[in-house]
Amino acid sequence: xxxxxxxxxxxxxxxxxxxxxxxxxxxxxxxxxxxxxxxxxxxxxxxxxxxxxxxxxxxxxxxxxxxxxxxxxxxxxxxxxxxxxxxxxxxxxxxxxxxxxxxxxxxxxxxxxxxxxxxxxxxxxxxxxxxxxxxxxxxxxxxxxxxxxxxxxxxxxxxxxxxxxxxxxxxxxxxxxxxxxxxxxxxxxxxxxxxxxxxxxxxxxxxxxxxxxxxxxxxxxxxxxxxxxxxxxxxxxxxxxxxxxxxxxxxxxxxxxxxxxxxxxxxxxxxxxxxxxxxxxxxxxxxxxxxxxxxxxxxxxxxxxxxxxxxxxxxxxxxxxxxxxxxxxxxxxxxxxxxxxxxxxxxxxxxxxxxxxxxxxxxxxxxxxxxxxxxxxxxxxxxxxxxxxxxxxxxxxxxxxxxxxxxxxxxxxxxxxxxxxxxxxxxxxxxxxxxxxxxxxxxxxxxxxxxxxxxxxxxxxx
Length: 462
Prior knowledge:
disordered N terminus; mainly beta; four-stranded antiparallel sheet; six-stranded mixed sheet; Methylamine Dehydrogenase, Chain H; elongated; 2 domains; Immunoglobulin-like
């Protein structure tokens, strides 16, 4: 056989071998969307019964971070959310419904997980007209109750939501208890009824529910109790001659230090002491910043009925989403087919939809062994690596979007797979949209032509 023919046939055999050889994937770990276990943040939960939502506020400024952190209308909805607390597992938010007589659990993505307590649903023999809930030092949940079989009592649930009986029985004048506040050595309660001449006594109890003494009296509807930064006790008075925020010494029997009210704000329900010495107050008509000289410096939320303000520690959360578009100008009608030994471009879009930032976000691309990164465009940082490509994205705020491109060249033909993932140190509440797999086929763009060799002429002889 002619040497040139043998060489061309060998090249053709090599191409056929390449086209039929499976491509092994690089054994590089894919960045998974998991949050750091100790990545926690302090926020303020505020129950909003106008929008039926749980708001999240910044505890340093009182600014609204997310007005609809939990939309409790979704999944059946609550009637009057009055308070929200984190469960000790740091994965669930518990919301107390004052009218439906239940405590509902939600995950950090806002999904309704069902009634947490009483187990089995509303039960007037256990909890009717609940006013507030408090985690006790022993890990139990205490709930103040106004009506039903446990009227004028404080009842207990364990961390599964199972009823544990009464902590405080309706004795010593306890009448429709509203808030229960844990101090260093006792429990302090407000109540909406009882007393003399509309002065409702605040009472103290031991941790096992034994009555100690009256703390003070408020005219006439004290609600949330909070601790001031100087250690004193703050009480929000909804209505009456002392409506406003009352400050007491933090002693066995409190002494009134001051009353804060601008003379205009109505129906105080919740209070939180800001670092700037002003008071964040939740009322029946909105959320305000009130100075201790009785001036409203800021209207934060207007014309909405707000309830207790609770400072909680919760995981830092985010919601990153990854999508991709392959651009292939050489073969525009075959979107999953790319040319062998020629660069192609994939466009990657990373977005973040939660009100909380994603910090130090990264995108990773795990390439097949025979694929190379030959270029990139990343407006937020660099892309580097071989086999496992890492692109730094920095911080993504709410509704932030980053578009970047990777230019890749397949060194082998045949089916190939690119695995992509995006992550940050925060806990992602929807990890299902954090990863992406691109399946493609690299095809040879050359053809083999065997040369024509003329046969020698045959001379016929007679």
